[in-house]
Amino acid sequence: GKLKKVPYQCNAIKADVTEPSAWATFAEVNDAFKGGSYDGIGYVFTESDPYVGVDVDGCRDSATCIAKPWAQQIIDQLDSYTEISVSGTGFHCLVKATKPPQSKSRVDSLEIYSSGRYFVVTGEHVKGTPLTINTRQAQLESVMTEYKFAQQIPRLKTTSKSAAVNGLVFDTNA
User: Fold this and answer.
1) Which of 45, 63, 129, 140 has its CA 20 to 30 A from that of 71?
2) What is the pLDDT of residues 107-116, one digit of tens each?
3) Candidate list 16, 28, 39, 55, residue with the active-site label
4) What is the dihedral of CA 51, 123, 117, 145, to 10 degrees?
5) What are the tens digits of pLDDT across the range 78-98?
6) For the whole model, what pTM was predicted?
7) 75, 68 in Cβ contact below 8 A?
8) Is 83 among the catalytic positions?
């Protein structure tokens, strides 16, 4: 089935992306992860950091490792650190930029977040992409224009707890 990405604090309490007191440093999270009680590490995007996460879903053949042409175009255009997502069928591109606050967060298989969300990080760097997170404001804006991220669509409130916090571990069995 689909991997559950429930975020946890290092003390085994479920995490909340909106609660900074629950966040931990990478060193703390890495120690907890290495302890074997967790399945991975997550990073939360906040208004106080310079990062934007671009989640390109359902665009990679996990057997051949080949990206669909539209996804490869986004990866090439952003030209920043890119890794394979947890599912193995998508990518996460990380850039330094500012996402317009009233813009949509999701259009089809493409999601763009700058706060209030988290990515489970895999560290599975995509060959041919930079090892650094680069400043890509114009490139991000171009992708957002091409994929029509101009205005926000109201989101329905959910009861899901799959949001996370900066530098937290997650448990797929929750």
Assistant:
1) 45
2) 999 999 999 8
3) 55
4) 60
5) 999 999 999 999 999 999 999
6) 0.82
7) no
8) no
